[in-house]
Amino acid sequence: MRINCNTIKLEDQDYKNLESIISKIASENKIDDIEAVQIKLSADASIIQFKTAKPLTTEARKDLPKSEFVFPEEERYPIDTKNRAQNALARVEQHGTPEEKAAVKRKVKEKYPDMEVAK
Question: Where are the domains of the chain?
């Protein structure tokens, strides 16, 4: 099994373990309620895509510790979950300066060493 942010590549033996896979998804993405994980199997049934049912609301974002942001003073680019870290990487690629891109990549790699981060 390979986990990459919100997509999981399943091996044949993993089909028997879907419940534990869903639990792992919930745990790694700080989802307290496993019911909040929505699953979508691909046509070949070897890929599971998931998303949390609860987006980051303005109120929830205000409650995040400053340490969960790449730029804590400005509260920019939250990386409290792998999904949000992946999103921070995507957004900074679209709109960030070279310095911001480097900072986001560095912080994401520090927090999630197993996550693939483009150079």
Answer: 2-52, 58-111
What angle do the packed helices 98-111 and 82-95 form, to 10 degrees?
170
Helices in 1-119 by DSSP H: which ranges? 18-28, 58-63, 82-95, 98-111
CB atoms closer than 10 angstroms to residue 113? 8
Whether the model pTM is above 0.85 = no
Rounded CA gap, 54 and 73, in Å?
25
Res 4: pLDDT: 44
Is beta strand 76-78 parallel, antiparallel or unpaired with respect to 69-71? antiparallel
Joined together, the tokens standing for residue 118 give 């483009």
Q: Are 89 and 117 in contact (CB under 8 A)?
A: yes
CA distance 90 to 115: 14
For residue 72, the one-letter residue type is: P
- For residue 1, is pLDDT > 60? no
